[in-house]
Write a structure and sequence with these properties.
The structure holds 2 protein chains of 2 kinds. Helix content of chain A is 79%, strand content 0%. Chain A is built from 8 helices and no strands. A 6-stranded mixed beta sheet of chain B has the order 6-7-8-3-9-10, with helices on both faces. Classes of the chains: A mainly alpha, B alpha/beta. Chains A and B meet through helix 5 and helix 6 of A and helix 2, strand 6 and helix 3 of B. Chain B: It comes from Sporosarcina globispora (Bacillus globisporus). Chain B: Keywords: ATP-binding, Nucleotide-binding, Transport.
Chain lengths: 219, 240
């Protein structure tokens, strides 16, 4: 095996710049997915069956089709859907955000249902209305339990973001591919990209562990 | 004053309460006893609408709480409840457990709520634990905090649902003592309990439920020394 990393050193800054692109897409999609996921999870536990039905249908569609297909649908479909072509990175944020919301809503729903029913009864008995009881009592406890699953979802999102390559967003993956094309040698730059993704995921993991420790203070 | 009129509660096909009528005067302490499955907890939970009655009426201070137009949240603010398993908020400190509802529901300022909270903690003998999390407390301490939490809303009535049943025997007394003190302050109390000694000593009246029916309603001396019904005699024989 003859690996020659030497020739890629000049291209390294170019590849590393992709980290910013990747992080931007992932963080924005993560926020979108989280907020929408909370809303959908409330729909799922709602007394109004209709809302639950909508949220279940949503989850079913986004979980039942490939992410890369959703990405391409949103990117290439935008001219027909809204009349103009959206930016590739916007399409990426939208599709990843909408997709993760489907998964996150399931995680949060399960987390809320796992909180002891006595907690909401105690809040009710004190005269606390549903919404603040949910926000201040139930959700914080649910979050603590679902944090590992949520971190998992964000890690998946970070790695899966590499598929934006197919619509031409110059993230880490795409840049590695471009550099490989210039030098007619793909192996090394893609290995470099792999290392970058791995380090990003490790940082996320450490971050998650830290948050978990903080949240377990009350144990 | 609480007035219960022909209260029925069904869970699906199961009829748990079969027409209960009674009343509790202001300042009265009523012990509700009976075998398990007799409906005593359900009866208690109907009084703050944690269970919605299937039929019948419950009036608290002249207000029909079973009426659709009644604001349930307002009712609950005046009816404190203490649970068998405490249900303290585990992610909040002891003091935050006490201040949360008064601040959120009554709009008290943080300093006012904390002042009242600390006073209540002193009354239940737990001032030193104000900034601990509930998981650091013993069962008896948790239940005393739960009582203080309910009192922080300044309720007119306090409901106790088997408050000592989940406690180790050596912790029962500290909780009963707190309840005894509370009874002496003139609080209206309804207590579902298996502590016969406590019922006898503290209660003004004993309600004996069996099979969803109010079988006896009498002063404790009378109930414990000379129960009228066969079922109460049976029950007491097993308990004592």
């Amino acid at each position: 095996m003859n690996l020659d990393f030497q020739q890629f050193i000049p291209s390294l800054p170019y590849i590393l710049k992709g980290i910013g692109v990747t992080l931007q897409i992932v963080s924005m999609a993560g926020i979108l997915g989280f907020v929408l996921g909370i809303i959908l999870s409330f729909f799922k536990i709602s007394r109004f069956k209709f809302l639950g039905w909508i949220a279940d249908a949503y989850t079913s569609v986004f979980r039942g089709t490939p992410l890369v297909l959703q990405l391409m649908l949103i990117y290439y479909g935008s001219p027909q859907l809204i009349g103009y072509k959206i930016d590739p990175s916007t399409a990426a944020v939208l599709s990843f955000g909408l997709n993760s919301a489907a998964y996150i809503s399931e995680i949060i729903r399960a987390g809320i249902l796992a909180v002891d029913k006595g907690q909401s009864e105690a809040a009710m008995a004190l005269g606390v209305p549903y919404r603040p009881a949910m926000m201040d009592i139930i959700l914080p406890q649910a979050m603590k339990n679902i944090l590992p699953a949520l971190m998992n979802e964000f890690i998946t999102l970070t790695k899966e973001s590499a598929i934006v390559t197919v619509i031409g967003v110059t993230d880490v993956m795409r840049r590695a591919y471009i550099v490989g094309g210039e030098k007619f040698s793909y192996f090394e730059p893609i290995l470099i990209a792999g290392l970058i993704y791995y380090i990003m995921v490790m940082i996320l993991t450490v971050l998650g562990k830290g948050i978990e420790r903080r949240m377990r203070r009350s144990d | 004053m609480i007035k219960v009129d022909n209260l029925h509660k069904h869970f699906g096909k199961l009829e748990v309460l079969k027409g209960i009528s009674t009343s509790i005067q202001n300042g009265e302490v009523v012990a509700i006893i009976g075998p398990s499955g007799s409906g005593k907890s359900t009866f208690l939970r109907c009084i703050n609408l944690l269970e919605v009655p299937t039929d019948g009426r419950i009036m608290i201070n002249g207000k029909d709480i079973t009426d659709k137009s009644t604001n349930i949240m307002k009712v609950r603010q005046n009816v404190g409840m203490v649970f068998q398993h405490f249900h303290l908020f585990p992610h909040k400190t002891v003091l935050q457990n006490l201040t949360y509802a008064p601040m959120k529901v009554k709009g008290l300022s943080k300093s006012d709520a904390e002042k009242t909270g600390l006073e209540l903690l002193e009354k239940v003998g737990l001032s030193a634990k104000a900034h601990e999390y509930p998981n650091r407390l013993s069962g008896g301490q948790k239940q005393r905090v739960a009582i203080a939490r309910a009192l922080a809303m300044e309720p007119d009535v306090m409901l106790f649902d088997e408050p000592t049943s989940a406690l180790d025997p050596e912790m029962v007394k500290e909780v009963l003592d707190v309840m005894k003190n509370l009874a002496h302050t003139g609080m209206t109390m309804a207590i579902v309990t298996h502590e016969m000694g406590f019922a006898r000593e503290v209660a003004d009246r004993v309600l004996f439920l069996d099979g969803g029916v109010l079988v006896e309603d009498s002063p404790p001396e009378e109930f414990f020394s000379n129960p009228k019904s066969e079922r109460a005699r049976d029950f007491l024989q097993k308990m004592l």
